[in-house]
Amino acid sequence: MKLYRYIPFYRFEEMCKESALSFVNPFTNWDDKKEGFLYRLAKEDIGEIESYLKNKKYGEQQMKQLINGGLFKGESDCEQSWFSMRCQSWCKSENSRYMWEEYGKEDGVCIAVDSSLLCRLEYNGHKVEGFDVQYVEERNPKKEIDMLRGKCGEFYFAKVLQYKDREPYSKENEYRLYVVLLDENGNPQDGIDNIIKIPIKNELDSFFHKIYICPKANSEVYDKLVDKCSEYKIDISKIDKGISGAHFCKDL
Prior knowledge:
Elements: E1 2-7, H1 9-18, E2 20-24, H2 26-29, H3 37-44, H4 47-53, H5 59-68, E3 70-72, E4 79-81, E5 85-91, H6 97-103, E6 109-114, H7 115-118, E7 122-123, E8 126-127, E9 129-132, E10 134-136, H8 141-148, E11 163-165, H9 166-169, E12 174-180, E13 195-199, H10 204-207, E14 210-213, H11 219-231, E15 239-240
Helix pairs in contact: 3-5, 4-5
């Protein structure tokens, strides 16, 4: 499966120079306040969640986890922190008109990478994983709690970020990469930067499947991209001009 990331040109330059991807703390670096719906709801109004969890196994612990951003592991006292997660958003739609309009700058590019290469990445021994974002018609705290609870009452905390409102987000067709930074005992590591750089294992030429140019871009952007690809030994035949936007895929 190919995944696509729509970024301004300077981000592409940064990626090539560092040969790395930037993963961020979703609770402090993302502007969308609907991310982490249950966590934010617990912060603002715990009432509905509390009434639902109070008679459930591990309900008291899970209320604390939602408020504090932690994860309870069954019978254990060990807590994992959602704040030890670092994420990066990708898209499953090739050359999406919606994504270009929302995220494409006049010098924007879109990189296409095979998902198998992305899920081979790691950070200090911690493996990068991913999931499809699920879009729901209406946010239902009780239903989402049940979807997150495991058989032993444990919370699958990556899924706190898996659900989003169908409108207006479903056209993003998002695939989310994440890494969890825990120590050997399963506890959150201390002193983790809000933004981490995860090294790209492959040579850039084999890492990039294709590089698209935003339809708003002019010929100067193409020339800049050719120069940058030449500098980092990326085959320029992987560049898709696409300036007219005539070959846009049909958006979802």
